[in-house]
Amino acid sequence: MTDGVVQIEKKLGFFPLIALVVGTMVGGGVFSLPHDLAVGANSGAIIIGWCITAMGMIPLALVYQTLARQ
């Protein structure tokens, strides 16, 4: 008699591994790029960058809020 357990073979192919490597490289660059840009910029440019980022993040947060309520 079986106990209802299904064995799933876990295997990554060539293209999923390539996507994993590319995603890791891009993800690492996302965290180092702001530091590199901030070193070469003045305070005004950094504040403008924060404002532009906020203008993009606030609508995104509102969308997630709306989706969470559904």
UniProtKB/TrEMBL annotation:
Which is one Gene Ontology cellular component term of this protein? Answer: membrane
| Primary location | membrane
Q: Which UniProt keywords apply?
A: Membrane, Transmembrane, Transmembrane helix
InterPro entries associated with the record: APC_superfamily
Compartments, record wording: Membrane
The membrane-topology field of this record reads: Multi-pass membrane protein
Q: Where are the transmembrane segments?
A: 12-33, 45-64
Query: What's the domain of life for this entry?
Result: Bacteria
Concerning PANTHER family, the annotation shows: AMINO ACID TRANSPORTER-RELATED, ARGININE_ORNITHINE ANTIPORTER-RELATED
Q: What protein name applies here? A: Arginine-ornithine antiporter
Q: Which species? A: Bacillus cereus
